[in-house]
What does this fold into?
Amino acid sequence: MTIIIYLIPVALGLGLLGLGAFLWSVTSDQYDDLDGAAHRILIDDDVPLPTHTDASE
Amino acid sequence: MTAAAQSSPSGCPSGLAPSSTSLAGDLSAFVVEKRGLKTLTLSVRGAKCGGCLSKIENKLNALSGIQNARMNLSNGKLAVAWTGPLSADTIASTVSDLGYGVSAFSEDGSAKAAKSEERGLLISLGVAAFALANIMLLSVSVWGGHGEMGAQTRTALHGISGLIALPVLLFSGRHFFQSAFAALRHGHANMDVPISLALILAFGVSVWETITGGEHAYFDASVMLLSFLLIGRFLDARLRRQTQAAAHELAALQNRSLNRLTADGDAEAIRADQVQKGDRILLAAGERAIVDLKITQGMSGVDESLVSGESLPRTIGRGETIYAGSLNLDHPLTGEALGPASDSLLSQITDMLEAGEQKRARYRQIADKAVSLYVPFVHTTAALAFVVWLLMGASIHQATLIAVSTLIITCPCALALAAPVAQVVASGTLFKKGIFLRSGDALERFAEIDHLVLDKTGTLTLGTPQLVSEHGPELDLAAQLARASRHPLSRAIVAQAGPGPVAEYILEQPGLGVEGWIDGQRYRLGSAEWVGAEQVSAQTGPSLWFAGPDDEPILFRFEDQLHADAGATLTALKQSGLGVEILSGDRPDAVSKIADTLQIETWHAQVSPTGKAERLEALNASGKKVLMVGDGLNDAGALALAHASLAPGGAMDVSQSASDAVYSGGLAAIRTVLSVSTRTKRVMLQNFGLAAAYNCIAVPIAVTGHVTPLIAAIAMSASSLIVTLNALRIKGEHS
It folds into this structure.
């Protein structure tokens, strides 16, 4: 059972790592605009080539 | 309106919100400058989807000097940072040209405090969840190794659990300890007192068990308790902050600026709160008045529909007064401020709102009632268990253990989750249907409604006149004149005719009409005598005459039409047993016509804002639970007095602030609100029933001394899960 002397600190360390990541995401405003984040992924950040533009512009 | 505005549809491309172009005047007073970098936060109304985000951000980033423009879709705040000579008004008008309402935003102290409270709870919840997962890991091995694990290993695992639990209890539990301590110091108890007691006792007994090498430690139970309670507390804080944010739109309205004329005739931009009595104010065409003004110069049509409910503009000239909230339509007006913004009609109505809100704050929610029954019950049970076991000859140690386990297992996890989860799910469901809830407890009040009071203009009707007479090519000619005017009747002609050319040499005469030249001919659009037409008797509703050089004058007739779903909605509501009445500030003939069409027997016309409030008080006094639906400034007082209230999305900001929810689209939203809130109330009652049933089972097990940490963990998480799953049913059921 001596293995738990290593395993428990390892488990706690991994948990703390996750907690640290969570705290970082909260304090860096990651949860401020949940609706916007859901939509932003769908926005194209490039524009059609000028030669292909039609009457829309 | 330019060609660019026509190529992309105005406002939200998904159609979730109506487009609006209300501009907030000069915004330079709100710019913060730091080392050459200027920043401005704008409150944008009408942005509801990803298309809005990219439209607004791309357009702004294309302006020269913009460093960063980022829109927050959740709360409608747009943060812009730029360098160089670009003016704040160019930025604001760029956004408003896209079809969104814009006003300056300055965050006040209470909003910041609410935000940091919510964030603190989220961090505490994260820390508690971390501890719970790790302690459970150790506890499961203790339960699994029952009978085989050596006493030393078990004590070591308990010890590690205790070391994890102690800092977490101190950190995450402080929300409850502080609140309980504050309540006790004032000599009364709240829900946090039994919670704190259970947390402290559970931890204390577990430490004692660990030191003496006992079999049962309740570290896992105390941290689990903490986690569940924090989930409920966090959801509650989040809903409260979201609803508060909606209320701040009122403050944003006051954040507007206006043009003051100096002694030598120059215009300077000042904030609304800087206006003094007697200041000379310039009100440009298309600008909304912020203070009450006595006109000294100019003549113009003024749209007072939000102030009085009157659907047609009134021509105002020298010596007349216009009230805050009125929109100047066609010509610049100069006026003398009758007092600071805080003395305006708008602010007086705001005071009425506050009185109403105080009344509403006294409303007792179901959750409060449940807690007041629950707290004495738990404490008495735990104390009785302790005494009875002592009398039956148990040791103090054993009796304490049983009393503490009773406290732990009956602690109100399910109770703390029952109401917030149901409210969060319901407000999410309503949000998806275009209804924005402004206060969580409003759901309970909506569910109690038995009488419906409706405003006419803008609520039952579309609020803008529609062309109802049939026309041929002359409509296109008239539209060429109408495109140059902001008068609602001109707008109605343009709406019918669509985009097209504009006449030349246009001249607008306030109160008379528009004149212009098309193909070298002079045309006029306006009142009968001005155009030179014979006044036709027995005509109803607003009308315009249009005349060219040689043709006979042509009559255009308009009507403020009902929402398409008004008839069906009101019939269904009446069938469900609701009393319905109309309360309008408009002319009696206009109101009676609508009432006849909708078969509503009770209606009141030409009611003043105070008259509306008095009617609501009379209804309240007769014991009716009134739902008020209205959009105008004149409805705001009545909205605040009603048991529950609703405002359409196009309503004046003050009215939106005064109501419990804001809806977009037609009147069918009233039925949605009522059905969702009835369902929510039912689910909340079921949840409290479930929590009570759980206690009926758990308490006997606890007081007879059969609760081990394993049973406590299973029972607590099961009850919380059941309550949460039951609340999710609100989303699933559709009427």
Q: What stands out?
A: Chain A has a mean pLDDT of 80. Chain A touches chain B at residues 1, 8, 11-12, 15-16, 18-19, 22-23, 26-27, 31-36, 38-40, 42-44, 56-57 (CB under 8 Å). Residues 51 and 57 of chain A are 12 Å apart (CA to CA).
